[in-house]
Amino acid sequence: MHRxxxxxxxxxxKMAERYGDGDIARVLTKxxxxxxKGRPGSRTAVRTARNxxxxxxxxxxxxxxDVLSMQGAASYTATSTRTIKNLVDAGVxxxxxxxxxxxxxxxxxxxxxxxxxxxFETLRQTRYVRLxxxxxxxAVLFPRDQPETKEx
Length: 152
Description:
Blueprint: H1 6-16, H2 21-30, H3 43-52, E1 67-68, H4 70-77, H5 81-89, E2 106-107, H6 108-111, H7 114-126, E3 130-131, E4 139-140
Antiparallel strand pairs: 1-2, 3-4
Helix pairs in contact: 1-2, 2-3, 4-5
């Protein structure tokens, strides 16, 4: 018989409140975890582990209109997932992730703040945004397309 590890149970506990068994199974598989008999995780394995350890959960993810995924944030702001990732990486946009490989959680209200609204507007107008106060120390968030060069 296979025993669910404490690390796996912690991931299941963290994700079970919001995400469905299929999402949890996907994250466990990406983390390299295995279910019984060495098989990749499945919805059934996650549900069985939850039931055995008394962890409440859900079959499908819980929808919260105030928390968006990376794709949802990109759609909401009419930008791309790359833009959202760049903003998170630059520390401009907060993001929550309850476990590695789990879906991102981005608060809708964070996307509506004045700084981000200005960034999105500038990006729409120029396709280029710099962050910072001094020109020489500004970090390039969205670099301009570089012209293609050919060697002769």
